[in-house]
């Protein structure tokens, strides 16, 4: 099915657009309305996770209309905002960034004891630091609860979700807290287990199963009326496979795929928080974080002997973050400083089919080890004069990268895999780079009326290359060569927008343009190996642009019953040669009719219309996709004082009701993949959320 969406929709939002990420619009009247739940004028949305049954970060982000997902599998997928995935959308757990030096799966970190997720849109280097090129995701844990007396109280939750039909599996979690007026002890755990799913043709998608386990414990002790010390430990494990890596080896006559049997993370937090400190400063927070992660990336064969190659990557991240606020008349100042140090090591070994034994572990090609150390300082000022509001922010970051190179020059040169013209790129040099990065943003807006609140934002951000971009290479057949001379990527953005409410109608909108300098892209060098394979390399494009529109319209038909329509449009262009950038999502319209109630009956009927996407960059293995339409529905009921439980929420949903066969455009396929799986067909889910 091929759906072409009218360009009239684009014209509808040409007069409106997007807004300031750091604007404190709580003081603007439109925000007081219960109608407008998603206001783009803050360019930062907050998702309440406590009221949902979610198994992963992406599961929690699923219904944000401006968020897509760049998939490598159901487990290993990454948030995609304004034309960028993890390489332009940093992910933070509290103050700790997960993907500073690499882009491994961020779904390893569970949502078991999470309270909310903040989702940023647009360049936010001034607020969040390096890497926030097109957005960011910040995950925040629950605050400890204290009683007013010495008597201990117990509270907790129980979540369960069972999926069936095309996607069989379950998610469950349980947690409890014991607390009085001085201490809080909380324990929680969760797990999920999903089998291979089936597409709309009832064909099984091999290697799509995954399972996760997580454990979370925290302890907090009050040190004053408005202060406490806390510590937290989390452990997450995952076992998954990747259907998008299934590839047929013509020479040897078998299929291969990628297996991730033992991804694991252990994370520690220690911190102190106080509502108000000396000098009238508020929201003081100091936090130490430490994470140790292990990632597997093994190549398996669909053969009697399945072993082929095993690769692991270990990362250690530790640091400290301090933040504080200060209100001065019409000014609301926010100051934050962060130090972080991430180190990465790796190893690889291959299976010997003659001796039927594994070879010795060696450092994987690319880097033996690498580290990235950053010092970040940011200051933001929200200014309000009656109906006029400003936000000014500035950030400074010192970034230091040390890399021990492991480029296999002998394999390239001695075996003659690549032409002489490219030999100068094959160098093995350790790197010690130091960068001073400055980011700024400025926002201005004015509440003309509750029906029209326009704003303008200018911003920029910078990122250093990921290790695999600068050092990644394929010495076995020469199809990818390193580029140790990559420059930092920079972006300059402009957002123009307006929000408003007229009676029972409401809207929020966005129009944005992002100009990139030294955009990092995987390109075809124009040369081929001796085996006639195209040779690719990450390079800096002199100029690239990503622009688009976001729009949501709504109307309250009756009490608590709403009709809504949302629209997203994104385009990316390599301005060096006027060709499309890789992996840009097609335009999308979502229409819904729903009843929204915290307690009592809630329901939703939704139609999701996605355009075809033929503006592609074929050298990345990107494939054109057809448009499709999906019909989804859900119904739920919220109870209070349900037996022994304070609240209970039960829900049922059906997705892809018409059992359509389709493929999401951002599904990541390698340039040699001949197997591009479709998404799940009709699927049902039954969920329950209990609190006591």
From TrEMBL:
Residues 216-657 form the TonB-dependent receptor-like beta-barrel domain. It is a multi-pass membrane protein. One of its GO terms (biological process) is siderophore transmembrane transport. Residues 1-19 form the signal peptide. It holds the Pfam family TonB_dep_Rec_b-barrel. The keyword Membrane applies. This is TonB-dependent receptor.
